[in-house]
Amino acid sequence: MSEKTTQHEQHEQRLNSGSGAKVGAWLAHRSKPYLPAWIGTAGVGVAGVAANIAWEGSAAAAVGLTLSSGALTAASWWAGSGMSKARRVHLAVTTGIATAWITGAALAGPTAGPLPDAYLMGGPVVALSWNVRQLTRGGDKQDGGERDASLLEKVGLAKAKLGLAKVEPNRVTVPIALPAGELTNQDVTKAMPLLASALDVPPSAIRFQPDPDSARRGVFVIVPTDMLKDPTRWPGPSAPGDSIAAPLRIGVYDDGSALLLPLLDAIHLLIMGMTGSGKTEGALDVLLEVLTRCDVTVWLSDAAKAGQDFMPLAPAIDWPAFDMPSTMAMAAAVQAAIPARTKWLRDHGYRAWEPAAAQRQTSKDHSCKKLKACGCEGLPYLLAWFEEAAKVLREMGEDTFTGIAQEARSAGVSLVISMQRASGYQLSTDTRASLPAALCFGVKGDDAQFALPEEVLDAGANPAAWGNKRKGYVYAVSAGIDEDMHANPARTYWTGTAADYVELAEWVVGTFAAVRRPTDPITAAAAEHAAGTYFTDRQARAGLDPDQQTENSVYLPAQQPADDDQDGGGIPVDPEDEGIDPTAEIPPADGDPVALPPLKLSPEEAREMLLTIVETLASIAPGTVAVKDLAPYLSQITRDRSWVSKEMKRMAEEGRLAPTGTDGVYRLVPVLAGS
Asked: Fold for domain 248-538?
């Protein structure tokens, strides 16, 4: 609230309270807005008397005053062109009456004939007419409506009615209703460029969201200022150690909300954008999220660039294929794995993949044996990623991915195809139709039609306006994303300089090594049968140390037996950590994991993050967690080890955790785990 507004309110309070003297002041204050009309009426009388003194009986003055009256009346009509029709007529009539009386008073005298009566009766009537307009405020609303009508008429939407605008920070939402039987929502779509021109905003700053239940109603969304100009640093994983079923946070929309990609709803994903548009940066954002989840395996091909951009993440990728023979073998392996995975899901009572399928099967409802749990190892989700897929399609044919895209959904497999231009010459129509989700970065010309649905383009999405001048700008279209957001520009996170990215990649590779899943036996058997040594020797072919890759891919099943005497409640203890007292306050160490870019979390956010990580660690071990097990996650919590130790003690006192027989080791309370 401004100082001026505060002073005005204080003045109002003083006038509205007090004695009879203040009542007079209150009346004077309230009458001020209505005095101009009466002052104008008095001014007309004074002007008539003065004109009579100067020009009484002058023929030349008579001609001049008559012409001046007509000119002033015409000028008032012209000046009111931006007003409503009623207000414009009111102004012109008032001007005509006033100038006519002044002319008559100047020539014949203000007291001649009917002039004094006309003044004494007509003057107050005219003044009161303006007071009535002020009281009803109808003129202001009509003026706004007239200006709206004038704007809409310019862009070919005459007779359209705008509803009450909702104004938010850097966002204006305005409902619109078109005249029945005259215009449709398609007419609004065609008028969008003209409307952007009339409002003097970029083409991508205005969108139209048609009402799905009406052919003539919708909502304009106007974002006058580009809030995405400054990139946002990658804030760290949104759900560390969680299931791949949780949405992936990969950027921000122009209204500041998070861009979330629900991979299981998206099923298969097309990533498209021209060189320099930030497509690879967006891919890294997706992978950085995926590689922190607990029930997903990643196979990634980049034959075009030999893994140039993805090599820092390669140790966390179960199958990095960085040459064409390996890529072709990977495509064959995915095709072979689909029926094997579908059979496993069917035999264990799953109609489609779900997070429970990735865990050891301990329920008789999901068992391949009759009337008892089978105890089979789970089937993690499989993400098959083909980067710069145009080269793969040239080598293997445009129908390479058609079968995968059409059959993989029920097998718990997602296909990601990344390329600069998904035209019909490179990607078959059937395959493109089987990729229901898209991340479309800047493109050339009409290329957006290969990635974005027609209704999104009609709503105002225009990635061609960015080209490669707005790196990281993207439109995200997927099931699970609000349809109203499909035409909203977003920007993927920035991983920083090359050195920053390498540091982040190393942190993700090392911190989440025990969480990530290697290829399961069912998928591995099918892949080995289809790809042979291209699969069994996959790390070596990518230039990685197979021993290091295997070590980083260790998976701890949720039901793995644990030694009750083992410190840490079943979570493996590194040799260098042996002998550490888990009950001691652990001081900060120089060897802590690399700090992430995000700002420090609030106490509530830090506690929520800690609880999430505790639940995750307990879920991949036999239900217990020690203070020292939280060391790799301090950067997400943005707190030191002593804070974590105190917080876990507090959680135990509140009943969220239960002490075990070993000091410093806690067990997750079952009720909390299910809440």
From this structure: Rossmann fold (3.40.50)
